[in-house]
Amino acid sequence: MRRSKKRSRALVASAVVAVLLAGAGTLLYQHLYPDLDAEVARTLDILDGHGQVVGQYHVPSAEEIASLGNADAVMFGRRLLNETARLLPDNVGNDLNCNSCHMAEGKRPFGNHYFNTGGGSYPRYMPRPGREIGLAERINGCLQRSMNGKPLAKDAPEMRAMLEYMAWLSRPVPEGARVAAPSEGPIDSTLTPDPIRGQALYAAQCAACHGDNGEGQRDASGDIAFPPLWGERSFNIGAGMARLYKAAGFVKHNMPPAVTREPPLGQQVMPDQDAVDIASYFIHQPRPDFAGKAKDWPRDPKPKDARY
Amino acid sequence: MRTPLKLAIALAATLAAAYGIARSTPYWFAPRQQAEVDIHDPTLIEQGRYLSRAADCAACHTAPGGKPFAGGLGMQTPMGTLYSTNITPDPDTGIGAYDYADFERAVRRGIRHDGQPLYPAMPYASYVIASDAEIKALYAYFMGAVQPVRQDNADSTIPWPANMRWPLAWWQLLFARPRSFIPDPTLDAGQQRGAELVEGLAHCGACHTPRGLAFQEKAMADDGSRQFLSGSVLEGWYAKNLRNESTGLASWSEAEIVEFLRTGRTDRSAAFGGMADVVEHSTQYLSDADLLAMARYLKQLPAREGRSAQWTPGTDTTTAALRGGDYRVAGSLAYAEHCQACHRADGRGMPRIYPALAGNSIVFADDPSSLVQVTLIGGRTPHTPHDRMAFTMPGFEQLPNAQLADILTFIRNSWGNQASTVSELDVARMRRVVRDKPVHVVPQETAQ
């Protein structure tokens, strides 16, 4: 009787010690090897034509390109869109890249993303040309207007590569559907611009990077870091960015970057009036003309901020 | 008597003696030093304002979003969170009831009004070398020019028995003994002035000198150990090595150090983390002569044994690879996607806007903590009148540990940089430091 009591006491004691040791060990292990990592990336809804959610869009990282069958073309397209002026000197006539306006490699909602370039959205009717155009033609529009340059042949390897990059980004979007993330953010287009106020705001919030004369800046290797906002090396009058509310919407939701801790660009959201004033100041500075402007809006009414 | 009883009595007697000695230190170890100070003398007040900036009182005693010098800034310690105190001249909640002797003893000796010792988070072990004239000017400024704020001090979250203050008197007996500044005769007058500031009021060592087991700085001045200002980690920020060594300040000129302290930036670097506050509250206001003195003093701190006084970059193969679309090196494609738009393919950033990574000594620092933390939570450069905009690095907490580790290892070893790798575990551990950051106590305005 006594012996078994002793034995059970010893047993209980060793059990307690074991539990304590295990607890301490677990705590120590958790301290040394914290189980902390990034939260699961948020996805965006994919909506069908009726606004029903038909899937989730996960914004892919450039590292996922390697596993694609057409990895080389997609990667080449990615580089062309990032560094258009350096890699396509015969087609770009100024100091802008595609991704000067298509922020974060074309993956930022409100930053002119490429998610909705697929899903059967091209070819489509657009009021400016007054006819149905394909995505290649849309890209050539950018080259001729925003980049004040020359179009690429539709079957040029460079054009195909850019299309392949956009196709990769839009692949999860089924026919007739869209990622529920506008590529352009909202802006109050009833506001009256004040370019004098805009000039002061430009000096305070834009000129540190884009220059007092809108001339932009290149980095130490000669690559474009901050695109010129006016002058001979900037976008021409035919570019979407030359239109007040397009420019203001872009400025409001994307500029200036690196002023908050918000990923991916440290951007803020600017008051609508500030953005409209800043845009009205810089878009009306001297910039190249667009030769084909007479052909724009041949049948539909011009938007109220059209420049010609 | 039985042995256990004897032992218990001996222990109680020792404790009682330890307690008694600790409580008696205000009478013999740090006696009051009374003096007359005219707190309305404008010249003295201005001197005091300058010295309060040199001493960076605001860095701790002004909480982000709080009123000047009203306290409430949380400081992380292994035991819990300490909150800085109200040092405005409010008689009830601040230091309004302090006479000069109380003030002097708090600043130089770490003993407050009621005779209790202050935590060494207050850098009295450095301030002790400040002269009587300096302390008088500081007193005139705080009493005569600082706006009184009625704001109660927040209690620390350190649990009993660790929150008992009397054992700190023993810490002070060991590590905060009275001393004065001893100029090194081998330095010129300018360097000696720099040493006096760096060791004393500017208390650079509080962050930049490694600490021992008892939390004491391993050196309070440049002694034979060469530990002074050799770099240390606090709240997950690595206050970098400031000695004239390869990974210290060897790659910095005196002019760059002055420019950095005055404006928070140079063409290739920018202050962030704790140093952004130091520039914003303190060094931007210091005279050119004092900044140059500090820079000249730092640049003569000899390298430690076995370390080079030069920094020699390796060959840059990174710029060509990134511009050519060669992403074979781990982390380089993620860098291109997430970092390159600002820090550029050549890693040289944009002068005074986006800091360089190539040749930036915080990037290839011995300890990558600051680099890991700034990448996770971002960082703000200080705002000074010198530049029209202050810039902020966004945080990248949303990227997985493995990708962040690859990116950080990549930038520490690219464009000629050479440094140790960063592991996924380093990133995971920094996430915990970030998660556990103290919250500051800033009372909201109440209706009067």
UniProtKB/TrEMBL annotation, chain A:
Domain Cytochrome c: 193-286
One protein family per Pfam: Cytochrom_C
GO MF annotation terms: electron transfer activity; heme binding; metal ion binding
Keyword Metal-binding appears in the UniProt entry: yes
Keywords from the named record: Heme, Iron, Metal-binding
Gene3D superfamilies with a match to the protein in the record: Cytochrome c-like domain
Region (Disordered): 288-308
UniProt entry tagged with the keyword Transferase: no
Superkingdom of source: Bacteria
Database matches in PANTHER family: BLL4482 PROTEIN-RELATED, CYTOCHROME C DOMAIN-CONTAINING PROTEIN
Name recorded for this polypeptide: C-type cytochrome
